Amino acid sequence: MTCTNSRQWRMPVPGFSALPLATKTVAPAVWHNLRWEIHANRTNLYFASKTARLTPASGKVPCLYLSPSERASFRELYGDTFSVERENGRTPYMEASAFVQRSFLQVSAPELLLADLTSGKAMDDIHLDLGTLYAADTEYPRMFAQAIFDHPTKVDGIFYESRHTKEHCAVIWCNRRPALVDVPFDHTGNLADRATLAGSGANIFEEQVRVVS
Hints:
Helices cover about 25% and strands about 30% of the residues. It has 6 helices and 12 strands.
């Protein structure tokens, strides 16, 4: 008898807007974001990525991803790539240019009202499961992000658990709250500032990586 994986990722159910959406009020805090230096400016602070898993599927909602630590923001960006390399028996690698062209931002966010996806009940209430939230095909979680954006609760974004560090992260949008457009931020250096180089490798946030050009 042959067994196959027939798991089906979920989609928002009809009538999603009538479902109870769990929320969390997050106190003003300092968050971190890692991005290309050329996008580390006010004009590009929020953007609608075509692949980021919690950017609403319409592609019309600019987002800002926030992590509670620099390590978490690094792992959120590189964690999947590193895992694939390890699964294939290789030491993870990074482009040499990334060390000087990836820049950290420190964002001082005000109080936020966020859709809470950090508890099982909150996810059950909107018929979302972890398999869909972390699906390889990001189209599915992006459809849930769109449904949450359109929900009458009118949250500022989504509060979620990093699948790499288990820390709580956030993605926010500024479409409804003008105050979020001008959220204060500072540049706090690049990846090279956080790395210890050794020959053709580097140690960064306790990750040993190959450096390639």
